[in-house]
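WARN  no MSA supplied for this record, continuing single-sequence
INFO  ligand: iron/sulfur cluster
INFO  echoing inputs
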Amino acid sequence: MVRSRDGVYVWVTWLAKLMAGEFTCQWSAWFRSHYTGYTRAPSDFQLAAWTAEHAQLLDELVRERAGVGEAVYREDQNRFRVRRSSGLRLAGKPDLIAIDRSGRVTVYDAKTGRPKHSDLIQIMLYMMCLPHASPLYKGKALHGCAIYANGQRSDIPPAGIDDAFRRTATYFLDLLDASSPPRRTPTVWDCRFCDITVADCEDRLEAEATADALDDGAEIPL
Ligand code: SF4
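INFO  complex generated
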């Protein structure tokens, strides 16, 4: 049963995709931030395959960092929540945080798909929030790293969390914090990866209905 949340709640991955412009329907993230208990579209076998691949990639990374003597904290050990003065809560769960013998902290996220801007923004949001979320990271300049199944690694220096990044994060948090929703902008691509059903979004485009037109192109009378 869909119901209003007890205060606005934002998951870091929703914010990262908005900031990267990879998910254009802002209403989707706004709705999730303000409501809970809604009926979710079923996930498919591709998600199950992704989950298994991600677990392996992360496990290999954990072994690698522990193998060089670093302290490693994995997934649920890294859950955090920070709060704006408005009451909005921003929460996340970094895949892995590793601390080397010199005290250097690196936030890792394992990615099985092709590299996307949102991968890096997601890690940068973790780097921005964690010093406020846990005494373990308070006052520290955190490093970041996205690792991919193809072996690629993208490092993020602490300087990446600058005023411009904080301003952009603030802009999109303001959007999600607003009491009035942004417009829905349904596209077959966004709706395909959106878990909100027609029960709550009558504008949802079903992939089956549009796949033929996208595959073959619509006829033009020329
Ligand atoms: S189903 Fe489509 S239009 Fe509706 S919220 Fe999701 S992305 Fe937006």
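The first strand starts at residue 3 and ends at 4.
INFO  checksum written, moving to next record
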